Records
---
Amino acid sequence: MSEIKPGPVIEAKGARIPLLGLGTWNLRGRVCARVVEQALRLGYRHIDTAQLYENEREVGEGLRASGIKRDAVFVTTKIWPSHFAPRELERSARERLAQLRLSEVDLLLLHWPNPQAPLAETLGALAKVKHDGLTRHIGVSNFTAALLEEALQATDEPLVCDQFECHPFLDQSKLIAACRKLGLAVVAYSPIAQGEARKSDVLKRIGAAHGKTATQVCLRFLVQQDIVVIPRTSKVERLSENAAIFDFTLSDDDMREIAKLGSRDGRIVDWAYSGRMKWD
């Protein structure tokens, strides 16, 4: 497994977020720790976890085992909506650090909207956690364009990103445009559509022209738009494939053809925490 150079970063509200990260959803135990360690040794500098994933301890173990200096790695975690009451949010944030065995994370997100928790109170608690030094930056996940506007009106503290499902088969143009307008970074989870990308004839054909796989074309399509990608894999050999996306460029025609794959019906993750989400 050859080492890659750490990839480019994007800047948003003072945060410098590596465009390529490792998602760890559904990774557990020694597999999780090993994949995190190998990703960092390979050149990844961005690791994404969450309270829900129940693997923060293993993510921390992988980080320490890698030998990479802590300040060279961008670590993101998320708080689950049932912990959005202010005191509970602060307690949960401290628990995240205890699990990871870190003094701070780089980015702390609200994992899903919770309409039963007053957004201004939740954001106030999130801002306090930042002021107390538990996280360097804060943001949200799975927020619609309307909720982003509401969130930014409810706090003076900078929100640096919205993390949401984003891949060529789902038209997220409205939400991406809203993030751009508001100065937020876009972080794409399920960026290869949970493996569906490798089955696409369009992506395979474009990949063949560039000497790349369909998965690499899929990821390149996003990072070429300055969208952060956090593909998940449990296979160490896939880490190199997912990382080899910065040594080629898709043409304008390629980008347009891939964009045509998107539809409103392409969503894979539709797990609204409370009530029905009105997706963009």
---
Amino acid sequence: MVARRYDDESLASRAEQVASRTYELSELLVDVLGLEDVGAYFPHRVTYHPTCHSLRMLRVGEKPLRLLRAVRGLDLVELRDADQCCGFGGTFAVKNADTSTAMLADKMRHVLDTGAEIATAGDASCLMHIGGGLSRLRTGTRTLHLAEILASTEEGSA
């Protein structure tokens, strides 16, 4: 931890206290609050991209999918090779543009193969990368953050 590297034990202790109360959205809803059905309504065909960070660092597992399966009206379709990176990865997309573009092409092909209207994830950078690619191709498939779907209601459905 940076605070310990600079011998600031007080800051390190406060940071650890905050970290112990900080959760990824699906973790908070499923593990902490005990919810899967949040009362959402979203009548669209949706596919889910589990981000590298959620898979490898946060290890949220199936929690986002459990939440999506409980959304009324939602037709959840499996994304082939879902665990494969979309190619964004922070500065990776800039430093390795050709590789990033190839990875994005694979991800977009898999999204389009599902016939989904919406691709969702819990990471805005992945959604920006995938959504930008889909938009440039004028596919009509768009991206939405998982939180936007979970917040949708019958009155305000997108």
---
Amino acid sequence: MYLNFGLIRSFITNNEGKEFTRQFYFNSNEANIGNLFVTDLRKLLTQKPSSQVFEVLEDCELEVFSHDDITSLYHQNHMWEKLGRIFIQLAYIQMDEYYCTLLTHTPKEHYIKLKKYMPNLCKRLPQYHIASFLGVSPVTLSRIKQTCNE
């Protein structure tokens, strides 16, 4: 799906029902970056059921493309296939950077980076979603924010 405007989050849930935010999807001129394609790439590529849940956090407008729609475009013109490959490569790079940040940065460093790239968006997100995205509790996020003088 292509996000024309709005805010969506994806998350997974463990066996105890705890949610872990994987990604925020947004199209906003308030952010220094945008994440416009709302998809589970694993599901798209394997055609197996998704383990992710997508939650609309604000009113959204989406352009929806099925797997068959995408495959049909690929067959119509190789430029579509090239464009699809580029989108998948960019999504992989973004995901890899996110996971590397989680592994190599402290939650405070990760929060500072989040604020740098999505300053106004962070104000719109519920704090428990930001905490889940950072892999910390809401209480820990409050402490992090205090040390950042917020």
